[in-house]
Design brief:
Chain lengths: 580, 30
């Protein structure tokens, strides 16, 4: 790696960690109902929303009501997005007169955006009207992220409250997440992105003359090109901040109208991990011990840095088979070096590799390069980052609640070693908590491995695997890892917009989102009821380097034991074939 | 017809999720 590349990575991490405390502190004030600098502007709007919707903000919910509210809200959102797609041909804001979306694709997309996955089997500019993009997809980008944040805050309340029956009010947590956190940040980012050249318009697509005329496949002269436009900036801002990831255009943030400059690239990268990292500090503030938040953030960052180093190294080294042929792959003033296939020259190897690691560490899924073109080891990293359960920063809310469940498993493992009842933040971890934690840990691997197995066995699944051998297997494994962990990025190369994949990946996303959120909320309810146990000499401190190491060990071991056999059939064997 | 199928499948999933909530509650009360 060049020193310039190293400096860019270091700068990114310093800014990210530096912003965790101020933003995390602000979010803690939002969730604890304390005054914030936005109260004067947003307070009246918040109260108006409660009045219009009949919500009593002071009324708290037990975990079951909280979970039912979350599910019903998501069900309604899902059905609205489905209907919008199925009826868009006759609805306004459709200057290209795009037809209604097919039923299976509409199902997949509605599920994808409601679950904060944003897996896209379609191409945005050729499929979705401006109305569908704005009212359907962008709105879900906000509210699906807010639902994840609400679930996390409920779990944190479960950990911090004692002998309580309630874990907060879902509607209040939703409204405050959206109004006070997501909307202001998205507004600022959207304006900055527009200044960089990201489009934001209702104009129809423009036909422009080509600088150099060319020919099509039939030898006919081509002198013009159609430029797809639309209200992209507003959607791009929240797609990154809400770790949604669904692109306005088909090639996502590799498109110059979604990500035009190095500055827009940096800001979008920062936006992806900003809230998930800052929520660690929010957690520390809300449990009245910020060391706990820093410990979790440290564990996430250490795993991330090692895997980021691996993907940058693999991509910068390029393909050894080409080196043997005497092709120079060294970075120099004349070339980026390394593996540049599928990457934008605007971003180069380092920023493409950084994006791949960031987008799969968070459950974001946006891309600025084609992951299918990465080297086998370069592709292994994003794949494994998703398979770790999207807990290395992870999605907004969902990443941290996943990591807190790993922390509960870590204290359980430590408790087994010394023969004591495990405790986390003064709460005894007993059989019920472990049952719920086990459910959260086991659901995603079951979805990913069963889904992949079915796809490579059934004729409908095999029909659209266009690459043979290990690479084709990696593409299928990647698709189910992405859907089964609510990431949404694609390896590409797999024909996924057909009834088989739309249905199977749709269900993978549904189970991965809600069948993790439900046991998490049950866990929150159970923990809230417990009394606080004072720390004793046998209590394992959960803010020390020892605990950070234990937590990392648990995350890596679970990920490795579950997925290495499958990975051995995909990227690992592909790497060995390349080395031969 | 296709719409009924997909909407029906979604509703079925959410009904199943209600079943999971009930199961989690029952386990808590054991």
């Amino acid at each position: 790696m060049t020193s310039n590349g190293f400096l860019q990575l270091a700068f990114y991490l310093v800014v990210l960690i530096g912003l965790a405390k101020p933003l995390g502190s602000y979010m803690a004030r939002v969730y604890e109902g304390q005054s914030t600098m936005l109260d004067r502007v947003l307070g009246p709007l918040e109260r108006l929303i409660y009045r219009l919707s009949g919500v009593q903000p002071a009324e708290e919910m037990n975990w079951k009501i909280y979970a039912v509210a979350m599910l019903l809200f998501n069900l309604v959102g899902l059905l609205v997005v489905y209907l919008l797609q199925r009826l868009q041909g006759g609805l306004p804001l459709n200057p290209q007169s795009l037809p209604n979306v097919s039923a299976d694709s509409a199902f997949n997309t509605a599920v994808s955006f409601a679950t904060n996955t944003n897996w896209q089997g379609y191409g945005g500019e050729t499929t979705m009207s401006y109305l569908t993009q704005m009212v359907g997809l962008s709105v879900q980008n906000f509210v699906s992220a807010a639902a994840g944040m609400a679930t996390l805050i409920a779990l944190i309340r479960g950990l911090s409250r004692r002998s309580a029956q309630t874990i907060g009010n879902f509607w209040v947590d939703m409204v405050r997440s959206t109004l006070y956190i997501l909307l202001p940040l998205a507004l600022i980012l959207a304006i900055v992105l527009v200044s960089q050249g990201v489009v934001q318009t209702f104009s129809p697509y423009q036909e422009v003359p080509l600088l150099t005329a060319t020919q099509d496949a039939n030898g006919q002269a081509v002198t013009t090109q159609v430029l797809a436009l639309g209200p992209a900036a507003s959607q791009v801002a929240i797609k990154q901040l809400g770790t949604n990831g669904g692109g306005f255009f088909n090639v996502n943030s590799a498109h110059p109208f979604e990500n035009p400059t190095p500055l827009s690239n940096f800001l979008e990268l920062l936006a992806i991990l900003l809230i998930p990292a800052a929520l660690c500090y929010t957690f520390g503030k809300m449990v009245k011990d910020t060391r706990q938040g820093w410990a979790v953030l440290t564990a996430m960052t250490l795993i991330f840095v090692v895997l980021l180093g691996m993907v940058v190294w693999a991509e910068q080294n390029g393909n050894p088979a080409l080196t043997k042929l005497g092709i120079d792959q060294t970075a120099s003033a004349m070339q980026a070096g390394g593996n540049m296939e599928g990457k934008e020259t605007r971003f180069g190897v380092v920023n493409s590799a950084l994006w791949a690691a960031v987008t799969t560490a968070a459950s974001n899924g946006s891309v600025n390069a084609m992951h299918d073109s990465f080297t086998p080891l370069g592709g292994f990293v994003p794949l494994w980052l998703m398979q770790l359960g999207e807990v290395v920063y992870g999605g907004v809310g969902s990443g941290l609640y996943g990591m807190l469940i790993f922390a509960i498993i870590a204290v359980f493992v430590a408790g087994l070693m010394v023969g004591r009842t495990p405790e986390y933040l003064g709460k005894k971890i007993e059989a019920y908590e472990m049952k719920m934690a086990s459910l959260v840990i086991l659901v995603p691997p079951a979805i990913v491995l069963l889904g992949t197995a079915l796809a490579v066995v059934l004729p409908a699944g095999k029909a659209t695997i266009y690459n043979p051998g290990a690479h084709g297997f990696s593409e299928v494994l990647y698709a189910f890892s992405s859907a089964g962990n609510n990431n949404g990025s694609a390896f590409a190369g797999l024909g996924a917009n057909n009834p088989f994949y739309n249905l199977s990946l749709g269900f993978a996303m549904l189970f991965a989102r809600y069948w993790l959120a439900i046991p998490t909320l049950a866990l929150a309810g159970s923990l809230a009821r417990k009394k606080l146990v004072p720390a004793g000499p046998g209590t394992l401190p959960t803010h020390t380097p020892l605990f950070v190491a234990l937590l990392i060990g648990v995350v890596i071991l679970v990920g490795a034991l579950t997925f290495i056999p499958a990975l051995a059939l995909g990227p690992i064997v592909e790497h060995l074939q390349m080395m031969q | 017809m296709q719409d009924l199928l997909y909407v029906g499948l979604v509703l079925l999933f959410f009904i199943g999720s209600w079943g999971l909530i009930v199961l989690c509650q029952k386990l808590m009360e054991v």
